[in-house]
Design a protein that fits this description.
Length: 106
């Protein structure tokens, strides 16, 4: 399973680590794990939730409460066709991004 450190998320999302930690506290859908060294690591699913959350907060001007409700609506199956389409596109874009930007890429 591919995981991302909080430093990588800072660069990808363009927000500070303390903001990511706050979002993680406020949005139960974001579930970081700890690696063997005790550092937070995030799965690809967490990354997609964080990108969606940032969009809702910064671009759509949702409050954190409103964004939480919207994310839960999307997660529980309301707007299922739209959600599936968005997830597929986001997954493809993230795969392409990391193919190009991973340090171990040619």
């Amino acid at each position: 399973m591919v995981t991302y450190g909080i430093g990588e998320l800072e660069k990808l999302l363009g927000v500070k680590a303390h903001v990511i930690r706050y979002w993680e506290k406020e949005i139960p859908l974001i579930q970081s794990r700890r690696d063997l060294n005790g550092r937070r690591v995030y799965a690809k699913r967490d990354l997609t939730v964080l990108f969606r959350l940032k969009y809702l907060l910064y671009d759509r001007r949702f409050t954190i409460e409103g964004a939480r409700e919207q994310l839960f609506r999307e997660h529980t199956g309301e707007d299922q066709n739209l959600k599936a389409h968005i997830e597929a596109l986001r997954s493809d874009l993230l795969d392409l991004y990391f193919l190009v930007h991973r340090p171990d890429s040619p």
